[in-house]
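Students often ask what a holo structure prediction actually looks like on paper. The answer is less mysterious than it sounds. You provide the chain, you provide the ligand, and the output is a string of discrete structure tokens encoding the 3D arrangement of the protein together with coenzyme A.
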Amino acid sequence: MTEVQKPTIERVQTAEELNDAFNRGLVELYQAVFADPPYEEKFTPEEVKSFFELYFLQGVLMLAKENTQNVIGFSASIPLVLEAEIAKIAENFGIDLEAVWYFADLGVAHEYRRQKIAQVLVQTLIAETPADTLIMRTSENNIASQRVNQGVGFEIIEGMEQFVDQQRQDGTVQSDRRIFLQKQK
Ligand SMILES: CC(C)(COP(=O)(O)OP(=O)(O)OC[C@H]1O[C@@H](n2cnc3c(N)ncnc32)[C@H](O)[C@@H]1OP(=O)(O)O)[C@@H](O)C(=O)NCCC(=O)NCCS
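The corresponding structure tokens follow.
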């Protein structure tokens, strides 16, 4: 019987590792993960690469890979001050910008879901992030994301919200309500 191997979850430490991940499906994975409801977002490969370059250069980027080394999941955090729009909302809410990092991204490939890969991606991201507080944003309709993150100790910040306009797969621009959660280490 073939043994089912657990995916490896590691931080991206070098530019070569990031390039290797681009060649092993990271860009297409990101596009596929956010093409679904509730997001239905459309990103060019250049946009996706620029997000991951920022995470690698200024933040923490974790990847999950299966045994053939294809990328099947990602999580990332950056200092909150680098996310200007959200930093402004947080500041108005009395959050100390200098002390907080932003949990910027999370995704797992469809065929690998419900195997606790996101849970481990978030736990290891929290451990690697050099701040005692992380905040994150999610769609109020994204139950999977809220469950995963509440499962590792994130709590909803009551009253903090944002309406985000985004181009959908069909080309229209729509707005949806995002909520915020925080985790104190
Ligand atoms: C959210 C996401 C990363 C979860 O990945 P995952 O690897 O399947 O999550 P896990 O297996 O670690 O789930 C841990 C727990 O979260 C909850 N959960 C996960 N997905 C769920 C879902 N679709 N519905 C309800 N609960 C869910 C469950 O309690 C689960 O534990 P269980 O499977 O033992 O019941 C994945 O669904 C995804 O990539 N979604 C699209 C991108 C996205 O929304 N990212 C977050 C943006 S803020």
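Residues 33, 106-108, 113-119, 138, 142-145, 147-148, 151 surround coenzyme A (CB under 6 Å).
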